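2024-03-11 09:14:02 DEBUG pipeline.ingest accepted 1 chain
2024-03-11 09:14:02 DEBUG pipeline.ingest length=157
2024-03-11 09:14:03 DEBUG pipeline.predict start
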Amino acid sequence: MMMFQNYSLLPWLTAWDNVAIAVDKAMSHKSKAERHRIVATYLEMVGLKDAARKKPRQLSGGMKQRVALARALAIKPKLLLLDEPFGALDALTRSSLQVELMQICEQNHITAIMVTHDVDEALLLSDRVVMLNTAASASVGQIFVKNLPFQRVHHEG
């Protein structure tokens, strides 16, 4: 599944429907009740249970990104491709979503590949950082593998 920097939400659909459209397409073999449960689960997982019936114009940037994250995760991808997913968010929202993304990927055994220009974000979220050379060819430069004997832990405060 791919998650972009812009939210890629359908503006005429509610947050619920923006997630449901992906779930219905990817999981058409499941019952309507099961698909409903999946949408509810993932909206709640990203903290949007109470905003499920709001349209994108009624949501903040962070909430829109949470809908996009719920949509991406609800279809249970093995691989999640993220293209600057937090670039347009304020620092507090970005930090919160980074922590949520780490926890969700860890709990659901999802491999994530992220494009970012933020070095701190790359080091926080990654086990391996692949840096590109700045030449026009954008070839692979250094590869940094973090060999930390502990899991990433976010401390509040």
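2024-03-11 09:14:41 DEBUG pipeline.report Residues 91-108 form the longest helix (18 residues).
2024-03-11 09:14:41 DEBUG pipeline.predict end
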